[in-house]
Amino acid sequence: MRRLPPQQIEKNLSDLIDLVPSLCEDLLSSVDQPLKIARDKVVGKDYLLCDYNRDGDSYRSPWSNKYEPPIEDGAMPSARLRKLEVEANNAFDQYRDLYFEGGVSSVYLWDLDHGFAGVILIKKAGDGSKKIKGCWDSIHVVEVQEKSSGRTAHYKLTSTVMLWLQTTKTGSGTMNLGGSLTRQVCYLRVVNVLCQDMENKIRSTLNEIYFGKTKDIVNGLRYGCLSCQVIWYRAPSQFLHNSDYLLLPLELP
């Protein structure tokens, strides 16, 4: 599934479940899907939907801590963890605004036997200006095991990034680029530093694998087509000896 276009994950996943219904639960739990946006009617702010803030058919907002549609006895973090969740949402809201210059972010935390876990979600969709569409979806799942001393903790971070771009121009037509990567790391470090480092590493890998290779292929095709279209150019005497010429390819129109 990670080799298929991220913007078509939902359709491909649905088709696969129709073909093999017995794998429904395994597929839904193991395949990351693009994040969806909902609006908190209480505070008027957007938040992201995922399995980690879902209870039945309802989703909990990190801003008001309310489920929509409302349900009774929905899963809630402890008072201590809820306070940390509020602070984390405010921190990553500023990080997203400064680093991505827009988009939506959400942080959800839940209690574990020996610590807690959480998920940091970030979504940034292109506005379609300059005939370029695209979307960035990042999902960071953090597991924190607190040590008995209470002074240190063990962090395990699993990050998934789904990125796609689509350009539509008269000269070049339509081009789709996209990919998905998942990485895991364990550290004794601050969570926001972990997420930032991981996003930078994944961004670099995506750029090298998908965009870098595509650029090499396009350049290969470009110069391959021009291999027989060359001109002789007489260089100025101050640069070359007499009778020296340069062989230059014609530029693309």
Automatic annotation (TrEMBL):
One of its GO terms (cellular component) is F-actin capping protein complex. GO terms for molecular function: actin filament binding. GO terms for biological process: actin cytoskeleton organization; barbed-end actin filament capping; cell morphogenesis; negative regulation of filopodium assembly; regulation of lamellipodium assembly. Keywords: Actin capping, Actin-binding, Cytoplasm, Cytoskeleton. The keyword Cytoplasm applies. The keyword Oxidoreductase does not apply. InterPro entries: CapZ_alpha/beta, CapZ_alpha/beta_2, CAPZB, CAPZB_N, F-actin_capping_bsu_CS. It comes from the Eukaryota. Its main location: cytoplasm. It is found in: Cytoplasm, Cytoskeleton. Belongs to the F-actin-capping protein beta subunit family. F-actin-capping proteins bind in a Ca(2+)-independent manner to the fast growing ends of actin filaments (barbed end) thereby blocking the exchange of subunits at these ends. Unlike other capping proteins (such as gelsolin and severin), these proteins do not sever actin filaments. Heterodimer of an alpha and a beta subunit. This is F-actin-capping protein subunit beta. It comes from Nothobranchius furzeri. The lineage of its organism: Eukaryota, Metazoa, Chordata, Craniata, Vertebrata. The gene is CAPZB.
